Amino acid sequence: MRIGELSERTGTPRRLLRYYEEQGLIAADRCPNGYRDYDERFVDRILQIRGLLDAGLPTRIIKQILPCLDKPRIIHFSDATPEMIATLEHERDRMTERIGCLVRNRDAIAEYLETVLSNDRARAAAARQASAGASAGASEG
C-alpha cells in the first residue's frame, strides 16, 4: 500500500511515517516510479509504535524492542545495556500503573452509565404507567 493509505488507515501523518522510516522502525519497498510501497503488516506495526511512543518510550528503544512484537520473535540481546533495561522496567511499571488507573476509570464510567440508564428506564416506565392510568380513567368516565 502507498504511504497515503497507510497514513489514513493508522491516523498517522505521512511526515511521521517518513520519520519512522528514517529511524528504522518501518521499511518500505520502492515501486519503479519511486513511490513507497508498505506491506499490510505495517498497519499494526504503526499502531504499536504509536502506543509505545504515547507510553513515553523513545524511538531508539522502540527500535530495539520491535522484534519482540513480530512473529516469529527474533530478539537480539547485544544492545541491551543496563540503562536500557532500567528504562524498560520503569516504563513497564508506569504502563502497569496507567492500566490500573484506566481500568478504575472505565469501571467508574460503566457504573455511572448503568445507574443513569437504569434511572432513565425507571422514569420512562413510570411515565408509561401514569399515561396508561390516565387513559384508563378517561375511558371509564
TrEMBL record:
Keywords: DNA-binding. PROSITE patterns: HTH_MERR_2. The keyword DNA-binding applies. GO terms for molecular function: DNA binding; DNA-binding transcription factor activity. Residues 1-68 form the HTH merR-type domain. This is MerR family transcriptional regulator. The lineage of its organism: Bacteria, Bacillati, Actinomycetota, Actinomycetes, Kitasatosporales. SUPFAM superfamilies: Putative DNA-binding domain (SSF46955). Pfam families: MerR_1. PANTHER family: HTH MERR-TYPE DOMAIN-CONTAINING PROTEIN (PTHR30204:SF93), REDOX-CYCLING DRUG-SENSING TRANSCRIPTIONAL ACTIVATOR SOXR (PTHR30204). The keyword DNA-binding applies. It comes from the Bacteria.
